[in-house]
Every structure is written in C-alpha cells, then in structure tokens.
Amino acid sequence: MKSYIQHGTISVLEHSIRVAETSLKIGKFLKDLGFSINLKDLVRGALLHDYFLYDWHKKEDWHKWHGFHHADTALKNASRDFELTEIEKEIIRCHMFPLNITKIPKVMEAWIVTMADKYCSTVETLAMRNKKERVDNKSNLKAQES
C-alpha cells in the first residue's frame, strides 16, 4: 500500500491511515452519544478499504473503471490475506457509495468509513491542488521579476 499513490503524492497507506484516524474520531463521538459502534472493526475496515494493490493511475483496460470496481478488488485481497468480520467486509465492500449506487452501507461502521473516505479524499485532493497553485504562482512571480 505504501508503494501505490492514491491522491497527488499521498500513498494508499497514508490515505488509509487518515481514513482510519478520521473514522475513529467519528466512531468515538457517536459511541459517546450512545450509538453501538465496534471500534476495532471500524479501524480495521478503514485500514483495508483501499487494499486493491495496483497503480490505478496507469492506463490499463482492466482497471480503467477503478472507482467502480476497486472496492471488490480490495475485499477480495483483504479476504485472502486477513480473517475479516462481517462488519469489516461490509466497510470495504460499500465504501464507494454513492458512486456505486447499488452498494448501500448496511451498518453504522460502513457509513462512518464511507463519509471519512470522502472527507479525506477531498482534503487530499484540494491540498494537492492548492500546493500546485502555490508552486505555479511562485514560478509566475519569478518569471515576472526577470
């Protein structure tokens, strides 16, 4: 997971850790409100939600629909390499909702990871663009000064 890029310069591993940390914060908050949340399954599912193990940026026909299919690949890989609970499987299987409109989360932990994934992906993508804009602006300023 460390070898594959998810968003910008963020590895799949870094992204998954961020999603797990964010999910844990949300899970603890909801648990404190009285919701029944399995924090262990929540964190494990979040860490494995993108366990697809390939570079989706490379132009290859078999994964050109990455956004629609990588959850199935991640679930297959995680099931092969780890003993998963039903909650963990559900988290991995449906974390791409609503893009995968037929895979609606059925447990609270899956909803949490789905939301945390969207939040972290947005922040990572915006940070990448913001960083690129700052670099471009510095280059433009230097060019104007010359």
Can I get a quick summary?
The protein has helices spanning 12-32, 39-48, 66-81, 86-94, 108-145; strands spanning 5-7, 10-11. The chain is mostly helical and 146 residues long. The chain has a single domain (5-145), classed as Hypothetical protein af1432 (Orthogonal Bundle).
Q: Helix tally? A: 5
Return the structural class: mainly alpha
Listing every helix as H and every strand as E from the N terminus to the C terminus, the arrangement reads EEHHHHH
Mean pLDDT: 82
Percent of residues in helices comes to: 55-70%
Walk across the major sheet and give the strand order: 1-2
Integer-rounded radius of gyration:
17 Å
Note poorly predicted spans. Answer: none
Q: What name does CATH use for the topology?
A: Hypothetical protein af1432
Give your account of this protein's structure.
This protein is mainly alpha-helical and 146 residues long. It has one domain (5-145): Hypothetical protein af1432 (Orthogonal Bundle), CATH 1.10.3210.10. It has 5 helices and 2 strands, in the order E-E-H-H-H-H-H. The protein has helices spanning 12-32, 39-48, 66-81, 86-94, 108-145; strands spanning 5-7, 10-11. It has a two-stranded antiparallel ribbon. Strand 1 and strand 2 (10-11) form a beta hairpin. The longest helix is centred in the last third of the chain and has 38 residues, at 108-145. It starts with a strand and ends with a helix.
